[in-house]
Every structure is written in C-alpha cells, then in structure tokens.
C-alpha cells in the first residue's frame, strides 16, 4: 500500500513520523509533495520517503491520498488532482472545517473519502484522531484508512457535526495544554527554578495527571478533591484561579476556536 501526502507541514510530518515509528508501511511507500521543493525533497531524503515532483503524481501513485494543506488552498489543490483521483483510491482529508459534502463537491461524488481530524501527538503514537467516512467508503477500504490512524494513536468515529468541537478540545488543545504547561513553568521561574527544570517538572506532572486520570477511571473532579487537603494549600490555589477566571477563559478559548474552524470551507 502507498500513502501519499499533499502538503508536508507540521501535521503531515507528525503523521509520517508516527507511521515510520510504527513501521506501518516501508518508508519508500510514503510519497510526498509540497509547495517548497527544497524542504520536501530534503525531508524525503532524510527519512527514505519518495519525493514526487507534483501533487498529481502523488495522487496518481498512491492508494491513500492525504490532503494536508491549509483550508484556504484546499479547493485549488483538489481541482489540481481531481483527474488523478478514482474510486480505487481513498482520499483522506485532514483539513479543518471542510465537510465531506464539500470534499465531494470539489472532486467527485463517487469517491471514497475519509474526513479526519488528527492531532500532532500522532508523531509519538499518542495521537487522538476523529474520523468520518462518506457513503462510498466502507468495509476493508474503510478499515485500511482508519488503520493508518490507529498506527499513530487512538481513533474515534464521530458524526461530522461533532468535528468542530472535537478539533477545539483535541487538535488545537495540544497547544492549549502546552500553554498550561508553559504557564506552570513560568510560575516556577518566578520562584527561582530554571526554565528548563520548571518545564520538566510541569510536563511530568501533566503527563502523570493524565495517566492517573485514565488509569483510575475516576473523574477529574474526584482527583482534584483528593489533592485538595481540608483547609490546605491546593484549595486556596483553586479558588484564586477560579477568581481569575480559569474555567471561563478556557471556555472562551474553545468558543473562539470553534467559531474560527466553522468559518473554514475550502
Ligand atoms: N497542525 C495541527 O496540529 C493540525 C492541523 N490540521 C490541519 O492540517 C492542515 C495543515 O496544517 P499544518 O500542517 O499545521 O500547516 P503547515 O503550514 O505546517 O503545512 C501546510 C503544507 O502545505 C504545503 N503547501 C502549500 N501550498 C501547497 C500546494 N499548492 N500544494 C501542495 N502543498 C502545498 C506547504 O508547503 C506545507 O508543507 C490544515 O488544513 C489544518 O487544518 C488538522 C489537525 C491538527
Ligand atoms: O490551528 C489550526 O487551524 C489546526 C486545526 C487543529 C489544530 N491546528
């Protein structure tokens, strides 16, 4: 099986690294093309991938064609490769905010298409990806497309109406969690730690908390209560964070993310 990537930016590279780590396909079966020749050619050389000279060649020579460009140019790129796509190939889009219906409209209503929303943690096998298939994608072909993401982490099949919210609390939230870690780290610097040490402490604490949450099967609120000793330090911190608007600021950020992604339509 050959997997072609059109666009080799941050997200495509994370998926590619995840696939290479998982040995999902041989490196040369991963085909790439993007706008910046020097960049994608060097990248392909570095990892033993196949660099194609055009987007059309990627589409022509791949079984799974992954559209990994920004939403603003998705329509142009699909117009460029439309003739190379066929019912024997699966188009996989990672483009935020572009629906299956719009992808069909821009290509062909008979094509098997998987709309997906991965996150950048796919690079280390810890991704969280939402997928939705159109009516033309079923059985083994659908399983094959989903298996690509299973090789890089967890996968949830969702209704498209849930994609924007999923993207905000998963795709974008990788950055928000890092923002939180960086905020903890800066607090550590305020109290005398080096940035490097504070970041290591904050990142390990975040990793450990996520692990404990998933391993215990308890809710975050139950775990918060365990840490808040009666009359203790943590409850004082929680109350001060709430007074500063911690929860409303997160909800506002997620609202803004959803509003932006629902404005994308390729
Ligand atoms: N970065 C992330 O964490 C996530 C990104 N996405 C989606 O992935 C897509 C790509 O995002 P990023 O990787 O962040 O952007 P990026 O800017 O890092 O990558 C875009 C790639 O497209 C290439 N490109 C530009 N014009 C092209 C053309 N005409 N033909 C072929 N390639 C072309 C660029 O050279 C670059 O390699 C977006 O649609 C975004 O919504 C989805 C989930 C998470
Ligand atoms: O920021 C973005 O537009 C993309 C979509 C989800 C994560 N990154």
UniProtKB/TrEMBL annotation:
GO terms for biological process: L-proline biosynthetic process. Residues 2-96 form the Pyrroline-5-carboxylate reductase catalytic N-terminal domain. InterPro entries: 6-PGluconate_DH-like_C_sf (IPR008927), NAD(P)-bd_dom_sf (IPR036291), P5C_Rdtase_cat_N (IPR028939), P5CR-like_CS (IPR053790), P5CR_dimer (IPR029036), Pyrroline-COOH_reductase (IPR000304). It is found in: Cytoplasm. Residues 160-261 form the Pyrroline-5-carboxylate reductase dimerisation domain. It is an enzyme of class 1 (oxidoreductase). NADPH binds at residue 55. NADP(+) binds at residues 6-11, 34, 68-71. Pfam families: F420_oxidored, P5CR_dimer. Pathway: Amino-acid biosynthesis; L-proline biosynthesis; L-proline from L-glutamate 5-semialdehyde: step 1/1. It catalyses: L-proline + NAD(+) = (S)-1-pyrroline-5-carboxylate + NADH + 2 H(+); L-proline + NADP(+) = (S)-1-pyrroline-5-carboxylate + NADPH + 2 H(+). Keywords: Amino-acid biosynthesis, Cytoplasm, NADP, Oxidoreductase, Proline biosynthesis. It comes from the Bacteria. GO terms for molecular function: pyrroline-5-carboxylate reductase activity. PROSITE patterns: P5CR. Its EC number is 1.5.1.2. One of its GO terms (cellular component) is cytoplasm. Catalyzes the reduction of 1-pyrroline-5-carboxylate (PCA) to L-proline. Belongs to the pyrroline-5-carboxylate reductase family. HAMAP family: P5C_reductase. This is Pyrroline-5-carboxylate reductase. It comes from Lentilactobacillus parabuchneri. The gene is proC.
């Amino acid at each position: 099986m050959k997997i072609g990537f059109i666009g080799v930016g941050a997200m495509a590279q994370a998926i590619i690294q995840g696939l290479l780590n998982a040995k999902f396909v041989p490196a040369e079966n991963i085909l790439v093309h993007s706008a910046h020749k020097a960049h994608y050619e060097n990248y392909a050389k570095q990892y033993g991938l196949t660099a194609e000279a055009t987007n059309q060649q990627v589409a022509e020579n791949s079984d799974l064609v992954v559209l990994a460009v920004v939403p603003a140019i998705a329509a142009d790129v699909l117009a460029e490769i439309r003739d190379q796509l066929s019912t024997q190939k699966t188009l996989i889009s990672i483009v935020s905010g572009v629906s299956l219906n719009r992808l069909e409209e821009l290509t062909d209503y008979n094509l098997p298409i998987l709309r997906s929303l991965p996150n950048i943690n796919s690079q280390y096998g810890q991704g969280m990806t939402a997928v939705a298939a159109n009516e033309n994608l079923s059985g083994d072909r659908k399983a094959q497309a989903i298996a690509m993401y299973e090789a890089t982490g967890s996968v949830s099949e969702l209704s498209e109406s849930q994609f924007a919210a999923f993207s905000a609390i998963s795709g974008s939230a990788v950055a928000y969690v890092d923002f939180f870690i960086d905020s903890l780290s800066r607090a550590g610097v305020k109290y005398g730690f080096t940035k490097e040490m504070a970041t290591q402490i904050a990142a390990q604490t975040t990793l450990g908390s996520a692990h404990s949450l998933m391993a215990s099967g308890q809710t975050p609120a139950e775990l918060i209560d365990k840490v808040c000793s009666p009359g203790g330090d943590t409850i004082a911190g929680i109350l001060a964070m709430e007074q500063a608007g911690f929860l409303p600021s997160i909800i506002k950020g997620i609202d803004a993310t959803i509003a932006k992604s629902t404005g994308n339509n390729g």
